[in-house]
Specification:
By secondary structure, the chain is α+β, with helices and mostly antiparallel strands. It is elongated, with a radius of gyration of 15 Å. Strands 3-1-2-4-5 form a five-stranded mixed beta sheet. The protein has four helices and five strands; from the N terminus they run E-E-H-E-H-H-E-E-H. The longest helix has 12 residues. The protein has one domain: 6-pyruvoyl tetrahydropterin synthase/QueD (Tetrahydropterin Synthase, Chain A, 2-Layer Sandwich), CATH 3.30.479. 27% of the residues lie in helices and 35% in strands.
Length: 123
């Protein structure tokens, strides 16, 4: 089994549509950190799961210095963004973490990978 991880940083704004009062309903920005994990039993003809540059192109160039409300057709919470990125990268993407601020990280794990991720021991 092969696994690669890519860390991206983007600057982007958003506002959340919430059913309670919050300052997050106002347009504001974050310096987001996105952690992407891909996994595969097979490598492509170049000996890779996916080129790190292609991962960056697929996500960074679409989101960096953008208003996420203008890009997504859903409430752009960190959780929803993580799921969207994971789906965008295809079947080899198994997990995405989206950190919107120092203490706030949302993780999306593809359902078929959840048991594996929960039981994975750090080496």
């Amino acid at each position: 089994m092969y696994r690669v991880e890519k860390r991206l940083e983007i600057s982007a704004s958003h506002k959340l549509n919430l059913d309670y009062d919050s300052k997050c309903t106002n347009l504001h920005g974050h310096n987001w950190i996105i952690y992407i994990t891909l996994q595969s039993t097979d490598l492509d003809d170049n000996g890779m799961i996916m080129d790190f540059t292609h991962i960056k192109q697929a996500i960074h160039e679409k989101l960096d210095h953008k208003n996420l409300n203008e890009i997504f057709h859903f409430n752009p919470t960190a959780e929803n963004i993580a799921r969207c990125i994971c789906n965008e990268l295809g079947r080899k993407c198994i997990m995405v973490k989206v950190q919107e601020s120092e203490g706030n990280i949302a993780t999306y794990i593809k359902p078929s990978q959840q048991w594996f991720a929960e039981n994975l021991k750090e080496v």
